[in-house]
Amino acid sequence: MQKRPSRTSEIRLAELVAALSIATDLGMGQPMEYVLHSCVLAVRLGETLGLSVSELREVYYLALLRYLGCNAGTHEQAALVGDELAMRTATLPVYGGQPSQIMDALVSHLRRMHLGLSSLDLDQVIAQRILVFSQVMQESAAGHCEVAQLLASRFGFDESMQQALGQAYERWDGQGVPGGTKGEAIAASVHIVSLAHDAVLFHRMGGAQMAVAVAKERAGGAYEPRSVERFCQQAAHLLAGLEAGSSWQAVLALEPGSQTSLSEEQFDNACRAIADFTDLKSPYLLGHSSGVAELAAEAARRCGLPEADIVAIWRAGMLHDVGRTGVSAGIWGKPGSLSDGEWERVRLHSYYTERVLARPRALAQLGTLAASHHERIDGSGYHRGASASLLTPVARILAAADAYHAMTEPRPHRPALSPEAAAEELLGEVRAGHLDSEAANAVLAAAGHRVRTTRRALVAGLSEREVEVLRLLARGHSKKHIAGLLFISEKTVSHHTQHIYTKIGVSTRAGATLFAMQHNLLATIG
Ligand SMILES: [Fe+2]
């Protein structure tokens, strides 16, 4: 996208990172706000340990960023264990425990995944998976750290934070991953954040009593003993009200040190980083988010939309699929057709995108647009099933850009379509009434296809002929009379009428009349 003047955007770094932490909650198979709660606890614990403001700031951001690498290696994990999110839900509580506990959790997970197998076949599956599990998980954890470090540098975090992220899964006793570090050699922030994250998990499972019991059990093992001692002494105070009220507000109010606001350019760079974070979820998605963003922005420009809309569609394109993090890579990579249950999970991803971006105002506006990328003008899309009257021109362009770009990428059930075949398929979507023709034509032109001259923007994706029919309907003409006026059959008028009603989301002539008045469509024809 064209470079813009560097002025301050309306978003704080803390807001952006906290929003992204909602995506990483989903990517770790945890309820939303798990990381926000952990951040509050980690800072509280750091304060009782007497940390300086700069040390507390590292604790704060490390707590929020700890799972930033969560999309790394998910495709491989899903190939091994089926639903990697369910596996993470099952195993996260025991990562700080004994190796035998991790294996027990894995075996239980595999049993749940393969309920239909005979016990002999099940034993075989378990034996095969256990053989490679440790190696895959070791590589995956190392990948998490590496990816988190690389992404953090793109958000502008310094060397010290990147180093802490590289040690995020290390343990006091040296038995962590990627390994090779123990005790005091590990950053103090890592010890505090590891304990806080697990304490929140066990607090949710069994209250303060369980959180304290597990912390004591793992002192000197996974956790640094002094932090455990302080946590256990003050657990009631530290855990008080952790899940009550607005965690979002609590986290933002807690930021140690001065608040950092992003410049417009930094915000753009952060959107690019989130796009890459998202597309790591599956090898089929590489470059999808940034490709959609560039294509949609160019299409919007060709439609003559204002600069603010072009910026918004570019950013929304970068962010549109962040909710994919909350759906198993096993589904994104499944070669066969999806079951109804799997489709339901797929349909959730645009909802997750909306929720991840919902809180900071600057992201919420983008989030509403981003989360509309699977909506269709006839109301057949998801997750809201919004129809034409609710879909703005930018939303229609984003939907067409996403659809076209996805067609030109390989998917597990089909190879990538050629640009020509994708263009034909996109136009088929227009003919079927799913996509707006002007938006699709603009996307095709932006992708380098020769298309008919883009027509003047019409309301709600209605064609010229449909607007004519709507005007006459609104003026009270019968279908028979309209047919005569327009030299078409009565059956064709009925067909147009039905199409119009679907596109503008009404079911009566009165609704259509009001719509026509609202959009100044009542000028006489002919
Ligand atoms: Fe999507």
What this model shows, in words?
The structure is a single chain. The chain is mainly α. 62% of the residues lie in helices and 2% in strands. The protein contains 25 helices and two strands. It has a two-stranded antiparallel ribbon with strand order 1-2. The longest helix is centred in the N-terminal third of the chain and has 36 residues, at 119-154. The radius of gyration is 27 Å and the shape is elongated. It starts with 7 loop residues before the first strand and ends in an 8-residue tail after the last helix. The model has no long low-confidence stretch (mean pLDDT 91). The chain binds fe (ii) ion. Fe (ii) ion is lined by residues 321, 349-350, 373-374.
What is shown here, in short?
The chain is mainly alpha-helical.
**β content, as a range?**
under 5%
Q: Note poorly predicted spans.
A: none
Ions, cofactors and other bound molecules: fe (ii) ion
Number of helical regions: 25
Give the terminus-to-terminus CA distance. 43 Å
Number of strands: 2
* Structural class assignment: mainly alpha
Q: Largest sheet, order of strands side by side? A: 1-2
Spell the H/E element sequence: EHHHHHHHHHHHHEHHHHHHHHHHHHH
Shape: elongated
What is the makeup of the main sheet?
Answer: 2 strands, antiparallel
Q: What do the pLDDT scores average to?
A: 91
In helices, the fraction of residues equals 55-70%
Taking all Cα atoms into account, the compactness measure Rg is: 27 Å
